């Protein structure tokens, strides 16, 4: 074990299948998360991210590797410490609030071992932290989706877990609500000093919330890094295609030497009448405040580029030939 608060070392998790054998869902997965940091597992449905969360929580045993929390091993083959002994809290996808209890009673649910005065003080502190000091007597059906999420967060934080797990924390909210709540939830978690591991399929949520993000595919983390590094310096073709808008194009289509591929982001090509890159305009759409142009490069590859109003291309019709240059420092190459 290292001095990281959460240390996952080469875990494998799987499920028995009919007729014998095992279907491996998570394979040789490792990560470290320091105290006070927010980590996120990002990937499409079925990539294994929620299974990792369940293994950390103690709901799934590991077939290989180990999991450590606060320097104490909580899982390895033959050892699965019960969830209640891991100092791990979890906020579930559907919040799992008790409908017959008001907000204060929901928050107090995991504090029943405390003396009444200490329990009430802790509940008051938690409700104040999440901005619901005056809503302790409200029942879940009387609260908005965002307020229910805050109550669920207060309940998860109330026992002061060493590690908090968040399972798709915004899945029950509409798009507009989740966008502003992601930043708000990050602020709340940072104010609490919590160490957090969350899972999501939404890149915008991951970028807003997390200090470190692990892009997952096929039960593995392909890159564990900060958001900017994932976008600007992807180390894997899958990560390059999964993060942000971009297209892998042959180097020769951009007039570059080599047989490899280039990750072309929407800002990677700029209109230039003397530019070396030739393309054909396929479509031009206004998306405010500028336009998005769909281009066909030599060889037939289709790419998108973002244009501002000063580009001079707004009046062009589909089929028009274009000349472009490669923006400085905009390309990532794969051999």
Oligomer: single chain
Count of beta strands: 19
Head-to-tail CA distance between termini: 36 Å
CATH architectural category of the largest domain: 3-Layer(aba) Sandwich
What count of helical segments does DSSP give? 8
The ordered string of helix (H) and strand (E) elements is EEEHEEEEHHHEHEHEEHHEEEEEEEE
Q: Which whole number gives the mean pLDDT?
A: 91
Overall radius of gyration: 24 Å
Mass-distribution shape: globular
Query: What's the CATH first level of the largest domain?
Result: Alpha Beta
- Beta-strand portion reads 25-35%
Strand order of the largest sheet: 7-8-9-3-10-11
What number of structural domains do the residues give? Answer: 2
The named CATH superfamily of the largest domain: P-loop containing nucleotide triphosphate hydrolases
Task: Characterise the protein shown here.
By secondary structure, this protein is of the alpha+beta class. The protein folds into 2 domains: 6-241, 3-Layer(aba) Sandwich (Rossmann fold), CATH 3.40.50.300; 246-334, Beta Barrel (OB fold (Dihydrolipoamide Acetyltransferase, E2P)), CATH 2.40.50. Helices cover 24% and strands 33% of the residues. The protein is built from 8 helices and 19 strands. It has helices at residues 49-57, 103-108, 116-129, 145-157, 175-192, 203-209, 227-232, 237-242, and strands at 6-16, 22-33, 38-42, 64-69, 72-76, 79-80, 88-91, 163-167, 196-200, 212-217, 220-225, 247-250, 261-264, 269-271, 277-286, 291-296, 302-307, 321-326, 332-334. It has a 6-stranded mixed beta sheet, with helices on both faces. It has a 5-stranded antiparallel beta sheet with strand order 2-1-4-5-6. A hairpin with a 2-residue loop joins strand 5 and strand 6 (79-80). Helix 3 crosses helix 4 (145-157) and helix 5 (175-192) runs parallel beside helix 6. The model has no long low-confidence stretch (mean pLDDT 91).
């Amino acid at each position: 074990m290292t001095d990281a608060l959460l240390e996952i070392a080469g875990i494998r998790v799987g499920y028995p299948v009919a007729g014998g054998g095992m279907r491996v869902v998570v394979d040789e997965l490792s990560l470290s998360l320091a105290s006070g940091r927010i980590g996120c597992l990002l990937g499409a449905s079925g990539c294994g991210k929620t299974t990792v969360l369940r293994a950390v929580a103690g709901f799934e045993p590991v077939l290989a590797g180990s999991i450590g929390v606060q320097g104490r091993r909580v899982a390895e083959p033959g050892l699965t410490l019960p969830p209640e002994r891991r100092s791990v809290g979890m906020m579930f996808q559907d919040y799992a609030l008790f409908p017959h209890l008001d907000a204060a009673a929901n928050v107090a649910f995991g504090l029943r071992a405390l003396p009444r005065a200490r329990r009430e003080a802790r509940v008051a502190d938690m409700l104040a932290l999440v901005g619901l000091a005056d809503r302790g007597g409200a029942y879940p059906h009387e609260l908005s989706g965002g307020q229910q999420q805050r109550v669920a967060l207060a309940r998860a934080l109330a026992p002061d877990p060493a590690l908090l797990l968040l399972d798709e924390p915004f899945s029950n909210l509409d798009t507009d609500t989740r966008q502003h709540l992601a930043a708000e939830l990050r602020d709340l978690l940072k104010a609490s000093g919590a160490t957090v591991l969350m899972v999501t399929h939404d890149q915008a949520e991951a970028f807003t919330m997390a200090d470190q993000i692990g892009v997952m595919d096929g039960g593995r983390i392909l890159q564990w890094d900060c958001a900017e590094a994932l976008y600007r310096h992807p180390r894997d073709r899958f990560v390059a295609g999964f993060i942000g808008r971009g297209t892998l194009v042959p180097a020769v289509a951009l007039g570059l030497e080599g047989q490899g591929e280039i990750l072309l982001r929407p800002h990677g090509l700029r209109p230039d009448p003397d530019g070396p890159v030739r393309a054909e305009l396929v479509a031009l759409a206004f998306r405010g405040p500028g336009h998005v142009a769909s281009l066909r490069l030599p060889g037939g590859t289709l790419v998108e580029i973002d244009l501002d109003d000063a580009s001079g291309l707004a009046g062009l019709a589909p089929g028009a030939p274009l000349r472009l240059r490669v923006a400085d420092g905009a390309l990532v190459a794969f051999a």
